[in-house]
Known about the structure:
- Residues 418-441 are annotated as: Disordered.
- By secondary structure, the chain is α/β, with parallel strands linked by helices.
- The protein is 33% helix and 17% strand.
Amino acid sequence: MPETLFQKVWNRHVLSTTDEATLLYIDRHLVHEVTSPQAFDGLRLAGRQVRRKDLTFATIDHNVPTDDQLDIRDLLSRRQIETLRANCREFGVTLYDIKSGRQGIVHVIGPELGLTLPGTTIVCGDSHTSTHGAFGALAFGIGTSEVEHVLATQTLWQGRRPRSLGVEVTGTLPDGLEPKDIILAVIRAIGTGGGTGSVIEYYGPAIRALSMEGRMTVCNMSIEAGARAGLIAADDVTFEYLARKDRPFAPKGKAFDEAVADWKTLATDPDAVHDAHVKIDASALVPQVTWGTNPAMTVDATGHVPTLAELPPAQRDEAARAFQYMGLTPGTPISEIPIDVVFIGSCTNGRIEDLRAAAHVFQGRHVAPGVRALVVPGSEQVRSQAHAEGLDQVFLDAGAEWRQAGCSMCLAMNPDRLQPGQRAASTSNRNFEGRQGPGGRTHLVSAAMAAAAAVTGRFTDVRRLLAR
Ligand SMILES: CC(C)[C@H](C(=O)O)[C@@H](O)C(=O)O
Ligand code: SF4
């Protein structure tokens, strides 16, 4: 019976099934400071240990300040960080702490460490765990009580097996466009509920042409389409990434070759069918900008804020609320919307290729007067790589702030926030009301588009800047 990649990985991990549920074996458990304290408390109360310390890895990302990581003034943040440290010590879990050289956003460091491997199951108390699916791993977010269950047993109960949604991306992504534009276009096409109950597999020539960084950007936002996870079959790009010498947990030598032979068997069989299928032509895309308060409220950078008449009746109420919250007049050209803040970072776009794309635009230009631009590497490794390439100097010369690693302004859980009413061009993944700070207004874009907004003070089709 032909199988999809998702079915193959799922089936490999089934330990037992009942009529309604399946017990899955978990290969890797990633942990951060926000969703783990109660899980460790639960273990302590029950007198249990972490079952597989060797498969459990923690870092600090959401609460860490990015101007000076060591200066944690917010009491709740400090307590959460100290609690994670104490829990990792007590339970013997490896922690990639601030200044370890390996700290960073959990979804950025997992792949860097070689923890994220094809065909594995990966969970974390965090919705954007879908990022790791870029390696052909079945990776998804879990709640805190499930974190406790995985800590104690290295297994996880799941309901019925999710459906498989095939998202085929054909053609070639035009110059100036980025993987972020692909995933925004996908969510725009299928809606924030388009992936509900499904695991999305992305495939097709435009996906094959992406680097691992780009594939992670795409899989990262699967959750914003309502999907349980996103997946891309591993190929030579994946194997090359995992073969690099700084991936301590990836198999080495003969074990690596054997693993590759196995990983190659995990692609979706030619005759396998997905439960549903969507096709997007990357060649026809232009840079994407969200205008509203969910990631499907997206338009072309060359377009305008929709008018109510242009929207289907079922979407009009939500749109009217979004116009108001976002302080936007329907019909306004996107290129006429001024911005106050630019945030380049997050587990969506805080990797080295994103910083390169931003630096390419910043090079020889300056942040527009009155605009604040933050560039925040997703990890300490990304930060040192950026230094090695001189990107930090490009950002600083352009008048942007060059920060330390963390979630930063992706969400308002640390000092990096929008002020009420401020409008941001942001490379992150969520734009609901207050996401980047109470009253803050978020427009999601690619790193190149964010940099273009920074230097022009408004949304500017980055292709116009690069064409000069
Ligand atoms: C804090 C955490 C639970 C949350 C998530 O699960 O996604 C955060 O990472 C986010 O992006 O909103
Ligand atoms: S960068 Fe943003 S989306 Fe990613 S884990 Fe941190 S808060 Fe969540």
